[in-house]
Amino acid sequence: MLSPISCVSRVVVLLAAVLVTTSITMSGEWGEEGVTYGQLGKDVTLTCAGISPSAIVEWRWDGAAELPEGSRLQQGQLLLPQAELPSEGTYSCHDAASGLLLGSAILRLGRLPGVPSVSCRASNYENFSCFWAPGVETFLPTRYITTYRKKLLTEDERQRSQPSDVGLCVQNPARPHACTVSKAQFWSSYRMNVTEVNPLGSTFRLLDITVQAIIKPDPPEGLRVEPVPSAPRRLRVSWEYPSTWPKEPHFQLKFRLQYRPFIYSSWSVMETGNMSELITDAFMGLGHVVQVSAKDFLDAGSWSEWSAEAWGMPATDNIPCLSSGPTVAPSEAAPGAMEPESPAEKPSLAPDNEPVAGQSDPTEKVAVLVSLGVFAFFVLAVILVFGFLMWIRLKKHGKEATKHHDLLAAAIHMKTLPRGLCKLWTFPKWCCQAESFCC
Ligand SMILES: *[C@@H]1O[C@H](CO)[C@@H](O)[C@H](O)[C@H]1NC(C)=O
Ligand SMILES: *[C@@H]1O[C@H](CO)[C@@H](O)[C@H](O)[C@H]1NC(C)=O
């Protein structure tokens, strides 16, 4: 039944078993046959067992007679003081006279497990998962034993329980460093035990948790942002429960919405128990970014991460200044409900781009117009007063000819300056409602 190859490998394993040391565990259970494990930085002793004390033994390292620096022979044993990683390799002992192989083993060096760090999270009220990270790098094959013990709250529970009431936190090979407890009890406390085991030893970490404290839903899904017809400052936002949250009347979610025009960086936030909400203070004619997050309705645990961003623009069919605007084509603005996560539809805005006139807030435009008007009025008044004073002065001096000439010059100034101003600010004609003053 056994193939010749497996017979040979069994013989090799038997031979390997002759090597024993104080600081070394031997193991086939770690999936590496014929491997011997030693602790980094400690003295490692390799023994060629079953040899009579008087026999003369010779050691080889990876087949060569040269041994790691600092190594010594002691009555047939090979001592590697404060072994470090370069001393790993295949060691074999031979009969000094005949060179006959007496035994061999692969030496691997590493550390004892450190205390792992552990955290747990429930993305719904039925199951929760724990995640861990090793405390130190051990360089050795490692496995984890993950168990829990439910804390018993009532005297009755304590009496009925057995000391061996330990549950398994189930590990999934597809998700390393994580385990899941199914059918958890929302109001119960659990003592988690994550034990790290390697060929040199084991270390465990305990963590006490309650499900309601570690609950953190996944972000809501299917976020949509749509314009409201004829309402230039409104956006309708809707979303769905995260698919990992079972819908049940006793365990509901509440939501938090954040939104901003895409050219600004500060968010407005609102909280709601609904699955859709109306934004009533959107900026006219601007694309908006919206995100939503969820939390247990009774405030247990923490808020979910923010959902993926969704984009939308309020309806532009009712804005006087923008209706004829060249930059916002109605066909572009009306379907506004842009699909989330589709970058092609995001309005592009290079970071150094100033918003062009057609995209800035209409209230800002009105403010600019008003301040320009006030400014022009003052310039005009100053020129008039100046001209009047000149005229008085010239009249006093009785130089009629010069007076007429100066008045003419002042009049020319009065006519040309506002025009110059208009040029300076390059107001787009279509948005210049106070045309009488500048255009
Ligand atoms: C909880 O775990 C069980 C068993 O693994 C699974 O059948 C169930 O779908 C999980 N519940 C949720 C809400 O993910
Ligand atoms: C944690 O689990 C390990 C492995 O099952 C066990 O040896 C250890 O005693 C446990 N620790 C406690 C405090 O239960």
In N-to-C order, the SSE pattern is: HEEEEEEEEEEEHEEEEEHEEEEEEEHHHH
Mean pLDDT, to the nearest integer, reads 77
% residues in beta strands: 25-35%
Largest beta sheet: strand ordering: 1-2-8-7-4
Q: How far apart lie the N and C ends?
A: 103 Å
Seen as an oligomer or otherwise, the chain set is single chain
Q: How many individual helices? A: 7
> Compute the gyration radius: what is it?
41 Å
Q: Any idea what the shape is?
A: elongated
Q: How would you sum up this structure, described in words?
A:
- The protein is an alpha+beta fold.
- Among the domains are: 41-110, Immunoglobulins (Immunoglobulin-like), CATH 2.60.40.10; 117-214, Immunoglobulin-like (Sandwich); 221-340, Immunoglobulin-like.
- It has 7 helices and 23 strands.
- It has helices at 4-16, 155-160, 211-214, 330-333, 362-397, 400-425, 435-438, and strands spanning 25-26, 35-39, 44-46, 57-61, 72-74, 77-80, 89-95, 101-110, 117-121, 128-133, 143-150, 167-168, 170-172, 175-181, 189-198, 201-210, 221-228, 231-240, 253-261, 268-272, 276-279, 288-296, 310-312.
- Strands 1-2-8-7-4 form a 5-stranded mixed sheet. A 4-stranded antiparallel sheet has the order 9-10-14-13, with no helix packed on it.
- A hairpin with a 6-residue loop joins β9 (117-121) and β10 (128-133).
- α5 (362-397) runs antiparallel to α6 (400-425).
- The longest helix has 36 residues, at 362-397.
- The chain is elongated and about 135 Å long.
- It starts with a helix and ends with a helix.
- Mean pLDDT is 77; it is low at 1-23, 322-360, 399-404 and 407-439.
- Bound molecules: 2-acetamido-2-deoxy-beta-D-glucopyranose (2 copies).
- One 2-acetamido-2-deoxy-beta-D-glucopyranose binds at residues 124, 126-127, 182, 244, 246.
- One 2-acetamido-2-deoxy-beta-D-glucopyranose is lined by residues 145, 147, 193, 195, 204, 206.
